[in-house]
Design goal:
Elements: H1 2-28, E1 32-37, E2 40-46, E3 54-60, E4 63-70, E5 73-79, H2 85-88, E6 99-101, E7 106-111
Antiparallel strand pairs: 1-2, 1-7, 3-4, 4-5, 6-7
Length: 121
């Protein structure tokens, strides 16, 4: 009788530790961000691994974009282009729609797990 109780406790502990490990490792994984300038990949990173917020400054032919990166999200916070569409797009956490600044030839994509399979509109 005590032998069965011992094995039940051992298997229960193994299952509990497995569940805890899945939650810990799943939190560390995140979407991959890729920043392209004039068609060239200039930066890549994992949004899930960002511990401290930081900014990236990207320049092209006199144009400048400042990109803010935080845990799980990214956005363009400043651009000296004439329309500012990239700034108005706001925070991106994933999905199919990239952040684009056509005047400065900047494209930011967020790739990873998504429940969305199409964007309409």
């Amino acid at each position: 009788m005590k032998s069965n109780r011992f094995w039940i406790i051992i298997f229960g502990a193994i299952i509990l530790l497995s569940v805890i490990a899945v939650f810990i490792f799943a939190r560390k994984q995140g979407d991959t961000v890729k920043i392209y300038q004039n068609g060239q990949l200039i930066h890549t990173g994992n949004l899930g691994m960002v511990s401290e917020p930081f900014n990236i400054s990207v320049e092209f032919n006199g144009g400048t974009n400042i990109i803010a990166v935080e845990q799980g999200r990214i956005r363009v916070i400043s651009a000296n282009c004439f329309d500012g569409t990239c700034v108005r797009q706001g925070w991106h956490t994933g999905g199919l729609t990239p952040i684009v600044c056509l005047p400065n030839r900047l494209v930011i994509t967020v790739e990873g797990k998504s429940d969305i399979d199409a964007v309409v509109g």
